[in-house]
């Protein structure tokens, strides 16, 4: 289900839940380079579905940082928080096909169920590519009327994709990955390794996975250029694209940056922000050169990192 377009379309899609750092700059500049080389369009999307952490001040700071860095996007910016109804409609389609079910398990209950399974089998429980235990399916067979009553009573819950039924519907799926020179290779998706992923929560009525595939399709994105930490998650995205009849873009996964201790740069760890660098007198041109753009190469303290949990690069 590959996408096609007369003109390539790229996008940079950060989450405004903290200040941008060098990892974000690398991703934005990599998208800019691909778009320039291929004569493509470059879009900006603000992934602000987390209403608690994504504040207006951080949105403005994000825009200021990108303007300072000199990355130019097309004028219209898509904000996920303005399209919740569209995500809900897509989720309803999947629910109507019995591909989504409510789960009432807390994180603590999931951990307890996994511990029981491990004790019973004498073997470690399966984990997903991010290292998290696969959901053991406690609520998968919950009676629909009972589940509906629990939801009506206001019981906290999430909505999970029944991955086995999804795979049975779409069959084997694949996606194409391009290298820095645009040469493509085909990757067979392995969605089963993710188990029954969460597609929506009570407090956040969609998930990164669902929102991103809908946004890419609605914006006509043909090339998704993002960090290598998201390569494995593409399994989920391709399955959702097939289930919803959406095109599958071409993908490119760039290396990540690490700090002096070898850890991936992340807002959650307080990695030095672009604003911090700017305050220290570092210029946008120096940032570009440090990351290998506009001449020069990456500095010694900006080394590739290994893939990890879905972060914020």
From TrEMBL:
<dbReference type="GO" id="GO:0004818">
    <property type="term" value="F:glutamate-tRNA ligase activity"/>
</dbReference>
<keyword id="KW-0648">Protein biosynthesis</keyword>
<keyword id="KW-0547">Nucleotide-binding</keyword>
<feature type="region of interest" description="Disordered">
    <location>
        <begin position="292"/>
        <end position="313"/>
    </location>
</feature>
<dbReference type="InterPro" id="IPR000924">
    <property type="entry name" value="Glu/Gln-tRNA-synth"/>
</dbReference>
<dbReference type="InterPro" id="IPR001412">
    <property type="entry name" value="aa-tRNA-synth_I_CS"/>
</dbReference>
<keyword id="KW-0436">Ligase</keyword>
<dbReference type="GO" id="GO:0005524">
    <property type="term" value="F:ATP binding"/>
</dbReference>
<dbReference type="InterPro" id="IPR049940">
    <property type="entry name" value="GluQ/Sye"/>
</dbReference>
<keyword id="KW-0862">Zinc</keyword>
<keyword id="KW-0030">Aminoacyl-tRNA synthetase</keyword>
<dbReference type="GO" id="GO:0005829">
    <property type="term" value="C:cytosol"/>
</dbReference>
<dbReference type="GO" id="GO:0006424">
    <property type="term" value="P:glutamyl-tRNA aminoacylation"/>
</dbReference>
<dbReference type="InterPro" id="IPR020058">
    <property type="entry name" value="Glu/Gln-tRNA-synth_Ib_cat-dom"/>
</dbReference>
<comment type="similarity">
    <text>Belongs to the class-I aminoacyl-tRNA synthetase family.</text>
</comment>
<protein>
    <submittedName>
        <fullName>Glutamyl-Q tRNA(Asp) ligase</fullName>
    </submittedName>
</protein>
<keyword id="KW-0479">Metal-binding</keyword>
<dbReference type="Pfam" id="PF00749">
    <property type="entry name" value="tRNA-synt_1c"/>
</dbReference>
<dbReference type="InterPro" id="IPR014729">
    <property type="entry name" value="Rossmann-like_a/b/a_fold"/>
</dbReference>
<feature type="domain" description="Glutamyl/glutaminyl-tRNA synthetase class Ib catalytic">
    <location>
        <begin position="11"/>
        <end position="281"/>
    </location>
</feature>
<keyword id="KW-0067">ATP-binding</keyword>
